[in-house]
Amino acid sequence: MPELPEVETTKRGIAPHILDQTIINVIVRDRRLRWPIPEQLQLEATGQKVISIKRRGKYILIETIAGTIILHLGMSGNLRILASDTPPKKHDHVDFIFNNNQCLRLHDPRRFGACLWTTEDPLDHKLLKDIGPEPWDDAFTANMLFKRSRNRTLAIKNFIMDSKVVVGVGNIYASESLFQAGINPETPAGKISLNRYKKLFIAIQKILEKSIQQGGTTLKDFTNSSGQPGYFKQELLVYDREGKPCVNCERPISKVVIGQRSSFYCNLCQKK
DNA sequence: ATGCGGACCTGTTAGC
DNA sequence: TGCTAACAGGTCCGCA
Length: 272
Description:
By secondary structure, the protein is of the alpha+beta class. It has 2 domains: about 120 residues, Alpha-Beta Barrel (N-terminal domain of MutM-like DNA repair proteins), CATH 3.20.190.10; about 120 residues, Helicase, Ruva Protein, domain 3 (Orthogonal Bundle). About 25% of the residues lie in helices and about 20% in strands. The chain contains 6 helices and 10 strands. The strands form 3 sheets. Strands 1-6-7-5 form a 4-stranded antiparallel β-sheet, covered by helices on one side. It has a 4-stranded antiparallel β-sheet with strand order 2-3-4-8, with helices on one face. A hairpin with a 2-residue loop joins β2 and β3. α1 packs parallel to α6, α3 packs across α6 and α5 packs across α6. The chain starts with a helix and ends in a 7-residue tail after the last strand. The chain binds a DNA duplex through α5.
């Protein structure tokens, strides 16, 4: 479900409800996520006040003095702010109950998500320490993409989806940014010129920004922390538009599987 | 080091 | 209508 814009939308939605609030209870109903929810989380987060809510890549970090809750929504997760007495539904894995009577609830049917606890600097955590720059970091540039891609043979789509290269470009926005940049998704990353990487760099930033403004993309079931959908779907130019006319040339949009993921592109507007 | 494929899951939809 | 197969927004890990 969530790519970076959806995670950012979620973060912005929950932050005002839980910042400076104290966690009075952590209710774990189903520990089974990508990794089991640690018991230490319940023991050590209970009684702690939230001092900041951050996002790094697709991870949401809820910081307290004692440690940090690391959340990942995986493919199907969402976080909701609810009244603390709202009855749980299927796949509601964990509730954080706050002193203001609010409940932050993690729901994740496919269980690819994560809910972890660290007492170290979360950026040093195993899952976070080696990930690449944010799309708006100074470290993320066209030049960096160009240099890092030299001698790489993998498809450009897989290259930009590699979280060690840049975080936050998931399957939807990878297709969209490559369309915007006029690059065929199967092009070997190492064969793309600096000029084309400049276009791609701009496209990635622009698309992610725009999607965040629209509250993310709802394909079927993404909702923000209040249960509202995102509106970026109406701006998708190629994703899930196989056979429909290209907005530039009206040729039907093609679909190809790259790295086991569906990829959409215009065979005329996007060159290898 | 790089690149690929499998693995982890459930729910929904497409197709017979 | 009902069964089955394919597919879905992520990403870690092991192997060649």
